[in-house]
């Protein structure tokens, strides 16, 4: 996974946890704008989320943060 998206995922997880608490859930769409301006990156994250990690549509931000940190 690209360093730039790892950094963005960690930042967004931290923001969501700070705003809504440790139990907040999110999907991989939380890391992208509503525009499909980087389809390759969207596909890269979707493939990691769905195919590699076999995650549900919504997962706890704490779990995602832990997974991304371990990469």
TrEMBL record:
InterPro entries: DUF6500. It holds the Pfam family DUF6500. It comes from the Bacteria. This is Msl2237 protein.
């Amino acid at each position: 996974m690209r360093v730039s998206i790892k950094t963005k995922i960690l930042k967004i997880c931290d923001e969501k946890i700070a705003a809504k608490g440790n139990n907040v859930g999110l999907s991989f769409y939380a890391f992208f704008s509503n525009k499909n301006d980087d389809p390759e990156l969207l596909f890269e994250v979707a493939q990691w989320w769905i195919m590699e990690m076999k995650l549900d549509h919504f997962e706890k931000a704490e779990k995602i943060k832990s997974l991304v940190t371990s990469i």
